[in-house]
Design brief:
The complex is a heterodimer. Chain A is mainly α. Chain A has 14 helices and no strands. The N and C termini of chain A lie close together (7 Å). In chain B, 75% of the residues lie in helices and 0% in strands. The relative contact order of chain B is 0.14. The chains are: A mainly alpha, B mainly alpha. At the A-B interface, helix 1, helix 6, helix 7, helix 10 and helix 11 of A face helix 5, helix 6, helix 9, helix 10 and helix 11 of B.
């Protein structure tokens, strides 16, 4: 991983972040509804026109779009994303507060995803076009076709209503409350990942060195564990990294179903009550995390693939 | 005769094509198939369990769940068709322009695509749909805004491959107009692969549209749509489980059929995949 490459990547990230922030800011600017009015109505009273005008000036809403954007951007660079209208607290604090529950859930489902899909993918690849392979393929097919919001509802009605293992209303953030959301989130991802594990292992199994090893009479399981798997690791790590990004971003639906106090839940509520600073902060924050993970994945190559190290 | 031979040779494709046609038929002939009016509320029938009169039960407002599920096919298919045609046209156009003209145009379009791709799609779609105001049109716009990149990238790479062929060179030397080169020589060469990718996407797109509706940012009540029906059913999880069972089954079946159709079409048309 050359320094030049890293710098290039960082510049790219900055451009994307800038673009995303501009885009979201523009969107909130164009969207119907007056933030000043929304903010004041949140307090429960109908604001007078004078008060509205005053609040607009206080929030800088009377300024042109670019000035408003510049002001917001300057704040963001100083670590201040403004005040949330509906929560009455700094956006940054709210984001940090909501980040950990989502992070825990995403991590848990990532672990579940790996535990399910790596063995299944390997088995399917070894027994290619035999019944275990077909079985795994049917499973992955069901996995990608079942919407996670429906799966969540089924889990809730089975484990919550029938067996009474969890509370249907949700909102518990302990380990027991974590399992169902994490599994729900993991299943669709696991299905996709299993397919990729299978394809990656299959590709490796058809390499010349595998044929060579077989000819030399090396045991099939030694070939698999010592040669094929380490080689297949690299693309798989990339995919795990990328999945983690989309897990973090894709939690909204599951969080709503299980009433999990995470970022997705927060974002949906913020959008529903037009809490613009919170929405802008959320989108930027997700973009930052997502791209941070992408860069980490890139960097991990250098450690996992000796060829890249030598090529430096 | 040719067609029958083709269909016989590819049994899997034929089966799923038939099923897909049945689903489309249900959508088109919904008024004749559905036993009741999906909008008709009969309050004394509220939350009836599945019985002989209402085969899948009734919802909170006494509307027939089966009829609503059947009409839901219509809503979902219409939204998906709109979504896919928009993304297909925009993505392909931008991709072809980027690939054919190259240079600065290519840079701008592809950096824009990079920007969209380096970001979890559903998050942005939710933000767009929510901020523009929740309704079906905005849900379609939102998902189109985040998913055109796939087609742009694909068509660009295909154009780059075709562009180098001798017949394009020949056409250029002959002084053929650029528009004619694009429409007569380039598009026919890439359209196959593009269509396959559209068909394989139908299922995924349906799921995304349904999740937006489920979150309240897509179709709005009282439209019969599976995502909203599931969201409404959420409240009555213990009391009326049939409210969430049938729309869910409908989504899963339709998504599976279209996914399988896409897969088998790809197996037939994409020689590289075999």
């Amino acid at each position: 991983m050359s320094k030049k490459y890293l710098i290039k990547r960082l510049i790219q990230v900055l451009i994307v972040l800038f673009g995303i922030s501009f885009f979201t800011f523009g969107l909130t600017y164009l969207s119907p509804g007056d933030p000043a009015e929304i903010m004041l109505t949140e307090c429960g009273n109908i604001p007078s026109p004078e008060l509205l005008e005053q609040t607009r000036i206080e929030l800088g809403l009377d300024k042109p779009f670019l000035v408003q954007y510049g002001r917001w951007l300057r704040g963001v660079l100083a670590g201040d994303m403004g005040m949330s209208y509906s929560m009455k607290m700094p956006v940054v604090d709210k984001l940090v507060q909501c980040f950990w529950p989502t992070f825990r859930m995403a991590t848990m489902s990532l672990i579940i995803m790996i535990v399910i899909s790596v063995p299944l993918g390997i088995i399917a690849a070894i027994y290619q076009n035999k019944w275990p392979d077909y079985f795994v393929r049917v499973l992955t097919f069901l996995g990608v076709s079942i919407p996670n919001f429906w799966l969540g509802l089924i889990f809730l009605s089975f484990f919550g209503v029938k067996l009474q293992w969890v509370t249907v209303s949700g909102g518990r953030t302990d380990f027991k409350g974590l399992i169902l959301p994490a599994v729900t989130l993991a299943i669709a991802m696991a299905a996709k990942y299993t397919r990729q594990v299978r394809v990656t292992i299959l590709e490796e199994l058809h390499q010349d060195y595998v044929i060579g090893a077989r000819m030399r009479g090396i045991k099939e399981c030694t070939i698999l564990w010592r040669h094929v798997l380490p080689n297949a690791l690299l693309p798989l790590v990339t995919l795990v990294g990328l999945s983690f990004g989309s897990l973090l971003g894709g939690t909204a639906v599951v969080e709503i179903i299980y009433n999990w106090p995470g970022m997705g839940n927060m974002a949906i509520k913020a959008i529903a009550c037009r809490d613009y600073p919170l929405v802008q902060g959320y989108v930027l924050w997700i973009a930052l995390i997502y791209m941070g993970i992408n860069i980490l994945v890139d960097l991990s190559y250098a450690y996992l693939d000796p060829r890249l190290k030598e090529g430096r | 005769m040719e067609i029958i031979k083709f269909l016989k040779k590819h049994m899997q494709f034929t089966i799923f094509l038939t099923l897909a046609l049945v689903i489309i038929g249900i959508a088109i002939f919904a008024p004749w198939i559905a036993p009741y009016d999906p909008y008709e509320t009969i309050m004394q029938n509220s939350l009836k369990a599945p019985n002989k009169i209402n085969l899948c039960g009734t919802d909170k407002l006494g509307r027939d769940v089966l009829s609503r599920v059947i009409y839901g096919t219509r809503t979902s298919l219409t939204m998906v068709i709109c979504l896919l045609s928009i993304t297909f046209v925009i993505g392909t156009t931008l991709g072809v322009i980027a690939g054919y003209f190259g240079k600065i145009v290519d840079e701008v379009i592809m950096r824009l695509a990079d920007m969209m791709i380096s970001f979890p799609g559903l998050v942005l779609a939710i933000a767009i749909a929510g901020l523009l105001g929740p309704n079906m049109v905005n849900a379609v716009i939102a998902i189109a805004a985040v998913s055109w990149t796939k087609y742009a990238r694909l068509s660009r790479s295909l154009v780059l491959r075709v562009k180098e062929s001798t017949f394009i060179e020949a056409a250029k030397i002959n002084g053929t107009k650029t528009s004619k080169i694009i429409f007569k020589h380039i598009l026919p060469n890439i359209i196959n692969v593009m269509v396959i990718s559209v068909v394989t996407e139908i299922g995924t797109m349906m799921l995304e549209l349904a999740s937006l509706s489920f979150l309240g940012f897509g179709a709005q009540a009282p439209t019969p749509e599976w995502g909203i029906m599931l969201n409404e059913g959420r409240t009555y999880l213990a009391k009326a489980p049939w409210l969430m069972v049938y729309p869910g089954i409908a989504i899963v079946i339709v998504v599976i059929v279209f996914n399988m159709l896409g897969d088998s079409l790809r197996d037939i048309l994409d020689p590289k995949h075999n």
